Amino acid sequence: MISTDERYVFSHVLAPGDYGVLNHFWITYMSESDNGTIIRYYIDGEQNASIVFTPSLLCGVGFYDAQGPWGTNWFGKGADDGAWWSNFNIPFQKSLVVTMQHLYGSFGGYYVIVRGQTNLPIVLGGRTLPKTAKMNQFRIDQLYHPLDWVPLVNVTSGPGMHFMVTIAAQSGNLNFLEGCLHVYMDGDNTFPGFVISTGTEDYFDSAWYFNGGQFHYPVSGFTHLTQEPNNVTWSAYRFHDTDPLFFNDGFQLIWRNGDMVDMAGMKCYMESGGPFAGSPTDSNIQAYGWAYTWPASTEEKAEEGFLAGQNTVGTMSS
User: Can you give the pLDDT of all 318 residues of the chain as single tens digits?
Assistant: First the structure.
Protein backbone atom coordinates (compact mmCIF):
# COMPACT_ATOMS: atom_id res chain seq x y z
CA MET A 1 0.00 0.00 0.00
CA ILE A 2 1.13 3.55 -0.77
CA SER A 3 0.76 5.69 2.35
CA THR A 4 1.89 8.93 3.94
CA ASP A 5 4.78 7.03 5.55
CA GLU A 6 8.03 7.30 3.60
CA ARG A 7 9.03 3.71 2.82
CA TYR A 8 12.25 2.19 1.54
CA VAL A 9 11.98 0.71 -1.94
CA PHE A 10 15.62 -0.05 -2.70
CA SER A 11 19.09 0.51 -1.29
CA HIS A 12 22.58 -0.40 -2.43
CA VAL A 13 26.09 0.23 -1.13
CA LEU A 14 29.02 0.02 -3.55
CA ALA A 15 32.22 -1.88 -2.97
CA PRO A 16 35.33 0.32 -2.54
CA GLY A 17 36.63 1.55 -5.90
CA ASP A 18 33.35 0.98 -7.76
CA TYR A 19 30.87 3.56 -9.02
CA GLY A 20 27.22 2.93 -9.82
CA VAL A 21 24.57 3.98 -12.31
CA LEU A 22 20.84 3.55 -11.72
CA ASN A 23 19.48 3.18 -15.24
CA HIS A 24 15.94 1.85 -14.97
CA PHE A 25 12.92 2.79 -12.86
CA TRP A 26 9.40 1.44 -13.37
CA ILE A 27 6.28 1.79 -11.24
CA THR A 28 2.65 0.85 -11.63
CA TYR A 29 -0.47 1.64 -9.62
CA MET A 30 -3.99 2.83 -10.33
CA SER A 31 -4.07 6.28 -11.93
CA GLU A 32 -5.78 7.94 -8.97
CA SER A 33 -2.60 7.32 -6.96
CA ASP A 34 -0.43 9.48 -9.23
CA ASN A 35 -1.38 12.84 -7.74
CA GLY A 36 0.72 12.90 -4.58
CA THR A 37 3.01 9.93 -5.19
CA ILE A 38 6.59 11.02 -4.53
CA ILE A 39 9.77 9.04 -5.26
CA ARG A 40 13.06 10.14 -3.67
CA TYR A 41 16.63 9.21 -4.58
CA TYR A 42 19.15 9.69 -1.77
CA ILE A 43 22.60 9.76 -3.40
CA ASP A 44 25.79 8.94 -1.49
CA GLY A 45 24.40 9.28 2.01
CA GLU A 46 22.37 12.46 1.55
CA GLN A 47 20.16 13.47 4.46
CA ASN A 48 17.81 15.27 2.04
CA ALA A 49 17.15 13.62 -1.28
CA SER A 50 18.57 15.56 -4.22
CA ILE A 51 16.20 13.86 -6.70
CA VAL A 52 12.48 14.00 -5.90
CA PHE A 53 9.74 13.38 -8.45
CA THR A 54 6.21 12.39 -9.30
CA PRO A 55 6.44 9.49 -11.79
CA SER A 56 4.31 11.14 -14.48
CA LEU A 57 6.23 14.44 -14.43
CA LEU A 58 9.50 12.47 -14.44
CA CYS A 59 8.22 11.09 -17.74
CA GLY A 60 7.48 14.52 -19.21
CA VAL A 61 3.73 14.52 -18.52
CA GLY A 62 1.96 17.22 -16.53
CA PHE A 63 -1.39 17.20 -14.74
CA TYR A 64 -1.34 13.40 -14.22
CA ASP A 65 -2.45 12.79 -17.80
CA ALA A 66 -2.90 9.00 -17.91
CA GLN A 67 -3.06 8.46 -21.66
CA GLY A 68 -0.92 5.59 -22.85
CA PRO A 69 0.82 3.47 -23.86
CA TRP A 70 3.70 5.36 -25.46
CA GLY A 71 7.47 5.47 -25.05
CA THR A 72 10.83 6.85 -26.15
CA ASN A 73 14.40 5.72 -25.57
CA TRP A 74 14.43 7.52 -22.20
CA PHE A 75 10.95 7.11 -20.70
CA GLY A 76 7.34 6.27 -21.29
CA LYS A 77 4.08 4.75 -20.09
CA GLY A 78 3.21 1.13 -20.77
CA ALA A 79 -0.43 0.77 -19.70
CA ASP A 80 -3.70 2.61 -19.09
CA ASP A 81 -2.98 2.77 -15.35
CA GLY A 82 0.52 3.41 -14.04
CA ALA A 83 3.42 1.68 -15.82
CA TRP A 84 5.55 4.84 -15.81
CA TRP A 85 9.18 4.00 -16.60
CA SER A 86 12.46 5.88 -17.01
CA ASN A 87 15.93 4.97 -18.23
CA PHE A 88 17.68 8.11 -16.93
CA ASN A 89 21.29 7.39 -16.00
CA ILE A 90 21.68 8.43 -12.34
CA PRO A 91 25.32 8.04 -11.21
CA PHE A 92 26.41 7.53 -7.61
CA GLN A 93 29.81 7.05 -5.98
CA LYS A 94 29.01 5.31 -2.67
CA SER A 95 25.37 4.42 -2.15
CA LEU A 96 21.81 4.84 -3.36
CA VAL A 97 18.53 4.72 -1.43
CA VAL A 98 15.11 4.93 -3.13
CA THR A 99 11.95 5.67 -1.14
CA MET A 100 8.26 6.15 -1.87
CA GLN A 101 5.56 8.22 -0.18
CA HIS A 102 2.09 9.56 -0.85
CA LEU A 103 1.51 13.13 0.28
CA TYR A 104 -2.25 12.93 0.76
CA GLY A 105 -3.38 9.49 1.92
CA SER A 106 -3.30 5.74 1.46
CA PHE A 107 -3.96 3.92 -1.80
CA GLY A 108 -4.01 0.34 -3.03
CA GLY A 109 -1.13 -1.83 -4.10
CA TYR A 110 1.79 -0.89 -6.29
CA TYR A 111 4.80 -2.54 -7.95
CA VAL A 112 8.25 -1.01 -8.40
CA ILE A 113 11.38 -2.06 -10.30
CA VAL A 114 14.74 -0.33 -9.73
CA ARG A 115 17.76 -1.56 -11.67
CA GLY A 116 21.31 -0.42 -12.28
CA GLN A 117 24.92 -1.38 -13.00
CA THR A 118 28.35 -0.91 -11.48
CA ASN A 119 31.18 0.72 -13.43
CA LEU A 120 28.97 1.45 -16.44
CA PRO A 121 30.12 4.44 -18.55
CA ILE A 122 27.54 7.12 -19.33
CA VAL A 123 27.85 8.22 -22.96
CA LEU A 124 25.83 11.27 -24.05
CA GLY A 125 26.24 13.70 -26.90
CA GLY A 126 29.13 11.66 -28.30
CA ARG A 127 31.17 11.96 -25.09
CA THR A 128 31.79 9.65 -22.16
CA LEU A 129 31.01 11.56 -18.98
CA PRO A 130 33.57 11.47 -16.16
CA LYS A 131 33.09 8.74 -13.56
CA THR A 132 32.55 11.48 -10.97
CA ALA A 133 29.54 12.95 -12.83
CA LYS A 134 26.45 13.79 -10.81
CA MET A 135 22.86 14.25 -11.97
CA ASN A 136 21.34 17.51 -10.71
CA GLN A 137 17.58 18.00 -10.64
CA PHE A 138 16.04 21.49 -10.59
CA ARG A 139 12.41 21.63 -9.47
CA ILE A 140 9.88 24.46 -9.86
CA ASP A 141 6.33 24.68 -8.51
CA GLN A 142 5.44 28.38 -8.50
CA LEU A 143 3.17 31.13 -9.83
CA TYR A 144 4.75 33.48 -12.39
CA HIS A 145 3.32 36.79 -13.59
CA PRO A 146 3.37 37.84 -17.27
CA LEU A 147 6.97 38.38 -18.49
CA ASP A 148 8.51 36.82 -15.38
CA TRP A 149 11.69 34.83 -15.93
CA VAL A 150 11.52 31.11 -15.09
CA PRO A 151 14.92 29.58 -14.15
CA LEU A 152 14.60 26.03 -15.48
CA VAL A 153 18.25 25.05 -14.90
CA ASN A 154 20.80 26.95 -12.80
CA VAL A 155 24.30 25.51 -12.43
CA THR A 156 26.33 28.23 -10.72
CA SER A 157 29.83 27.04 -11.69
CA GLY A 158 31.88 24.18 -13.05
CA PRO A 159 31.60 21.96 -16.13
CA GLY A 160 28.70 19.78 -17.16
CA MET A 161 25.96 19.01 -19.65
CA HIS A 162 22.30 20.05 -19.79
CA PHE A 163 20.29 16.84 -20.23
CA MET A 164 16.56 17.62 -20.41
CA VAL A 165 13.64 19.69 -19.18
CA THR A 166 9.90 19.21 -18.64
CA ILE A 167 7.48 22.13 -18.28
CA ALA A 168 3.84 21.92 -17.17
CA ALA A 169 1.86 25.17 -17.20
CA GLN A 170 -1.61 26.24 -16.10
CA SER A 171 -2.58 29.65 -17.46
CA GLY A 172 -5.45 31.81 -18.63
CA ASN A 173 -4.64 31.28 -22.32
CA LEU A 174 -1.87 29.92 -24.54
CA ASN A 175 0.05 33.20 -24.88
CA PHE A 176 2.65 32.01 -22.37
CA LEU A 177 3.94 30.02 -25.36
CA GLU A 178 5.28 33.27 -26.83
CA GLY A 179 8.08 33.04 -24.26
CA CYS A 180 11.61 32.59 -25.63
CA LEU A 181 14.28 30.37 -24.09
CA HIS A 182 17.71 31.81 -23.28
CA VAL A 183 20.97 30.08 -22.40
CA TYR A 184 23.67 31.75 -20.31
CA MET A 185 26.90 29.85 -19.86
CA ASP A 186 30.50 30.02 -18.70
CA GLY A 187 30.05 33.14 -16.59
CA ASP A 188 28.47 35.35 -19.26
CA ASN A 189 25.06 36.50 -18.01
CA THR A 190 24.63 39.38 -20.44
CA PHE A 191 21.09 39.60 -21.84
CA PRO A 192 19.88 38.05 -24.10
CA GLY A 193 22.50 35.29 -23.85
CA PHE A 194 22.04 32.66 -26.55
CA VAL A 195 18.45 32.68 -27.79
CA ILE A 196 17.74 29.02 -28.51
CA SER A 197 14.07 29.42 -29.42
CA THR A 198 11.89 32.32 -30.49
CA GLY A 199 8.79 30.79 -28.94
CA THR A 200 8.15 27.97 -26.53
CA GLU A 201 6.84 25.58 -29.17
CA ASP A 202 10.03 26.11 -31.22
CA TYR A 203 12.13 24.72 -28.38
CA PHE A 204 9.96 21.62 -28.27
CA ASP A 205 10.34 21.08 -32.04
CA SER A 206 6.81 22.15 -32.95
CA ALA A 207 5.21 25.34 -34.31
CA TRP A 208 2.08 27.48 -34.29
CA TYR A 209 1.08 26.65 -30.71
CA PHE A 210 1.45 22.89 -31.36
CA ASN A 211 -1.37 22.90 -33.88
CA GLY A 212 -0.45 19.40 -35.15
CA GLY A 213 -1.55 17.78 -31.91
CA GLN A 214 0.27 15.82 -29.24
CA PHE A 215 3.38 13.73 -29.93
CA HIS A 216 6.07 11.71 -28.11
CA TYR A 217 9.29 11.95 -30.13
CA PRO A 218 12.72 10.69 -29.03
CA VAL A 219 14.03 14.25 -28.56
CA SER A 220 10.86 16.15 -27.68
CA GLY A 221 7.21 15.71 -26.85
CA PHE A 222 3.94 17.60 -26.40
CA THR A 223 2.21 15.49 -23.77
CA HIS A 224 -0.87 17.25 -22.46
CA LEU A 225 -3.41 19.95 -23.33
CA THR A 226 -6.80 21.02 -21.98
CA GLN A 227 -8.51 24.26 -22.98
CA GLU A 228 -11.44 25.89 -21.22
CA PRO A 229 -12.42 29.57 -21.03
CA ASN A 230 -9.65 31.33 -19.06
CA ASN A 231 -8.03 28.03 -18.08
CA VAL A 232 -5.43 26.12 -20.09
CA THR A 233 -3.19 23.25 -18.95
CA TRP A 234 -0.23 22.11 -21.05
CA SER A 235 3.00 20.11 -20.77
CA ALA A 236 6.00 19.17 -22.91
CA TYR A 237 9.53 17.72 -22.65
CA ARG A 238 12.85 18.24 -24.48
CA PHE A 239 16.09 16.20 -24.35
CA HIS A 240 19.60 17.29 -25.30
CA ASP A 241 21.30 13.92 -25.65
CA THR A 242 21.67 14.22 -29.43
CA ASP A 243 22.16 18.02 -29.64
CA PRO A 244 24.25 18.40 -26.48
CA LEU A 245 24.61 21.59 -24.47
CA PHE A 246 28.00 21.16 -22.76
CA PHE A 247 29.41 23.95 -20.60
CA ASN A 248 32.71 24.68 -18.89
CA ASP A 249 31.82 27.01 -16.01
CA GLY A 250 28.15 27.30 -15.14
CA PHE A 251 24.92 27.14 -17.12
CA GLN A 252 21.45 28.67 -17.00
CA LEU A 253 18.37 27.82 -19.05
CA ILE A 254 15.82 30.62 -18.63
CA TRP A 255 12.29 30.69 -20.01
CA ARG A 256 9.80 33.55 -19.96
CA ASN A 257 6.07 33.58 -19.22
CA GLY A 258 5.12 35.27 -22.49
CA ASP A 259 7.31 37.82 -24.26
CA MET A 260 7.55 41.27 -25.83
CA VAL A 261 7.78 42.55 -29.40
CA ASP A 262 10.30 45.20 -30.44
CA MET A 263 9.88 47.96 -33.06
CA ALA A 264 10.92 45.58 -35.84
CA GLY A 265 8.32 43.03 -34.81
CA MET A 266 10.93 40.69 -33.33
CA LYS A 267 10.65 38.84 -30.04
CA CYS A 268 13.24 37.71 -27.47
CA TYR A 269 15.52 40.75 -27.56
CA MET A 270 13.70 43.17 -25.27
CA GLU A 271 14.33 42.84 -21.56
CA SER A 272 11.65 45.40 -20.66
CA GLY A 273 9.59 48.27 -22.02
CA GLY A 274 7.97 46.73 -25.07
CA PRO A 275 4.42 45.68 -25.88
CA PHE A 276 3.33 42.16 -24.99
CA ALA A 277 3.12 39.46 -27.63
CA GLY A 278 -0.54 38.59 -27.16
CA SER A 279 -2.04 38.73 -23.69
CA PRO A 280 -0.16 36.37 -21.37
CA THR A 281 -1.62 35.86 -17.90
CA ASP A 282 -0.36 34.57 -14.58
CA SER A 283 0.86 30.99 -14.98
CA ASN A 284 1.35 28.22 -12.47
CA ILE A 285 4.52 26.41 -13.53
CA GLN A 286 5.76 22.99 -12.56
CA ALA A 287 9.07 22.03 -14.10
CA TYR A 288 11.90 19.54 -13.78
CA GLY A 289 15.30 20.44 -15.21
CA TRP A 290 18.13 17.89 -15.34
CA ALA A 291 21.85 18.54 -15.83
CA TYR A 292 25.02 16.54 -15.24
CA THR A 293 27.95 18.23 -13.51
CA TRP A 294 31.42 17.06 -12.49
CA PRO A 295 34.50 18.50 -10.79
CA ALA A 296 36.55 20.72 -13.07
CA SER A 297 39.71 18.75 -12.31
CA THR A 298 38.28 15.63 -13.95
CA GLU A 299 37.42 17.12 -17.31
CA GLU A 300 39.28 18.95 -20.03
CA LYS A 301 37.45 22.02 -21.24
CA ALA A 302 34.96 21.52 -24.02
CA GLU A 303 35.67 23.02 -27.39
CA GLU A 304 35.22 26.76 -27.02
CA GLY A 305 31.54 27.58 -26.85
CA PHE A 306 29.34 24.92 -28.41
CA LEU A 307 27.01 27.86 -28.98
CA ALA A 308 29.62 30.58 -29.31
CA GLY A 309 30.23 29.97 -32.99
CA GLN A 310 26.55 30.25 -33.83
CA ASN A 311 24.50 33.35 -34.46
CA THR A 312 20.95 32.61 -33.35
CA VAL A 313 18.59 34.77 -35.38
CA GLY A 314 15.28 35.82 -33.83
CA THR A 315 12.09 35.42 -35.83
CA MET A 316 8.46 36.02 -35.04
CA SER A 317 6.37 33.05 -33.95
CA SER A 318 2.65 32.90 -33.53
Answer: 788 999 999 999 999 999 999 999 999 998 888 999 999 999 999 999 999 999 999 999 999 999 999 999 999 999 998 999 999 999 999 999 999 999 998 888 889 999 999 999 999 999 999 999 999 999 999 999 999 999 999 999 999 999 999 999 999 999 999 999 999 999 999 999 999 999 999 999 999 999 999 999 999 999 999 999 999 999 999 999 999 999 999 999 999 999 999 888 889 999 998 899 999 999 999 999 999 999 998 654 544 444 433 333 333 333
DSSP annotation string for the chain:
-B-SS-EEEEEEEPPTT--EEEEEEEEE--GGGSTTEEEEEEETT-SS-SEEE-HHHHTT--TT-----EE-SSEEE-SSS--EEE---EEESSEEEEEEEESS--B---EEEEEEEESPPPEETTEEPPTT-EEEEEEEEEEE-TT-EEEEEEE-SS-EEEEEEEEEEEESSGGGGG--EEEEETTB--TT-EEEESSHHHHTT--GGGTT--EE-SSEEEEEEEEETTEEEEEEEEE-SSS-EEESS-EEEEEESS-BB-TTS-BS--SSSS-BSS----EEEEEEEEEEE--GGGSPPPSS-TTTT--PPP----
What dotted CATH number matches 1-120?
2.60.120.1390
Q: Which part of the chain has CATH 2.60.120.1390?
A: 1-120, 122-318
In terms of CATH architecture, what is 122-318?
Answer: Sandwich (2.60)
